């Protein structure tokens, strides 16, 4: 889903008008720490609706704020960021082989030809412990054989979202609740303000080239690899690609605004997706544990990512976004 116009770096306060809508506000959790604010929409896929700083000039947005329609349509794709469980990005033809059989995910969303982003983002999350600066969210999936394309493994996913140390920290965790092994991947899908001056910095080793369906074909060199190391303009290429073996640190900078946002990630967030389509408003720099179509991809595990969780096994890792001004 693509917006039709670029968001300015400092959107007018009216872009947060949904905060003044009592029906919407009642469903939100707002975290505060000094001038920083993080607004969470548990009912819309456990998504972040906004991450911004209060200034004398109005809200300074570090992530693209949610559109009002995101709440009306319960659409995480129009939020600031949303969690990805139990895999990231596309699965070719919505099926893969695992455990001696075919996992068929066809029919879970008619909008997409290939299964996309798992299923946790399509459901409301429950709110657990919370304080002024933190909140725990959880989602538990119970397979339903009556639902076409339902993920056939039972699992629990959790997010601990915190404002601490001048940063936004999100710890993602999951546990396999099934009685058999479960293939697994996770990530987060942040959108950033995009202008002509925006630059993206990341030390990556190679790029997964993709076909017309945005599915990977091979891992190899690309001019974007060097461009990212030097500070890439989102307008330089038409990207919706995975990058392998990044250093788990990336920076989105707005040099004309004298500010930058640095994202760091724990292992196993060893893969990075850059979505910077040509002639478009969107910019995503996504930390993920698996490449697109990882359950079907051919390659070494460190190139493909993802894992298999044994029954009862848990996994957890933290993502951090640190704003810097000046």
From TrEMBL:
CDD domains: Aldose_epim_Ec_YphB. One of its GO terms (biological process) is carbohydrate metabolic process. Pfam families: Aldose_epim. InterPro entries: Aldose_1/G6P_1-epimerase, Gal_mutarotase_sf_dom, GH-type_carb-bd. GO terms for molecular function: carbohydrate binding; isomerase activity. This is Aldose 1-epimerase. It comes from Paraburkholderia panacisoli.
